[in-house]
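Quick one, tokens below:
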């Protein structure tokens, strides 16, 4: 008899939510999306084992992928906004002579490239997580395991949560 073959049921008169200790707040937590997102990020950063136990009990798949996408958006958008704000402030502070106008247009194009790179890195990280999930799934299959694809994808989706710290200026992808 092992954990995967047993069913946990709450005692009569007990709240069923309290019976299961390990769960993923994003998947079935209480509150709105922002609260569930913040609780999941703090759970991944503070006690990743709880998320792992939650993955053993459920097969999140798509919701974990959406969580990973949202993590990348939260990490990339502030960086892109800071880069664009710096470039806009620089272009407004330059005078209107032709020499500084050329410098401003050059710095604006460089800023747009940097913002594009930050957004591209965030999107590429999400794609890399999906590719790594495929690779891990394949390796597990080659080793004779019978993994559930949704759990493998879920572990990589929730594993992107620490990258949310990239929204802090100078702690991002660059």
């Amino acid at each position: 008899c092992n954990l995967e073959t047993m069913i946990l049921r709450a005692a009569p008169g007990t709240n069923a939510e309290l019976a299961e200790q390990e769960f993923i707040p994003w998947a079935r937590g209480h509150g709105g999306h922002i609260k569930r997102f913040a609780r999941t990020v703090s759970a991944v950063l503070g006690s990743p084992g709880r998320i792992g136990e939650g993955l053993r009990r459920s097969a999140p798949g798509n919701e974990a992928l959406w969580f990973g996408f949202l993590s990348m958006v939260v990490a990339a958008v502030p960086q892109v906004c800071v880069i664009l704000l710096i470039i806009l402030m620089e272009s407004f502070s330059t005078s209107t002579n032709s020499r500084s106008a050329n410098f401003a247009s050059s710095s604006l194009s460089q800023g747009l490239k940097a913002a594009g790179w930050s957004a591209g890195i965030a999107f590429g990280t999400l794609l890399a997580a999906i590719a790594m999930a495929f690779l891990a799934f394949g390796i597990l299959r080659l080793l004779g395991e019978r993994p559930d694809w949704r759990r493998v994808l879920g572990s990589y989706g929730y594993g992107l949560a620490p990258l949310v710290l990239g929204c802090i200026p100078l702690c991002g992808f660059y």
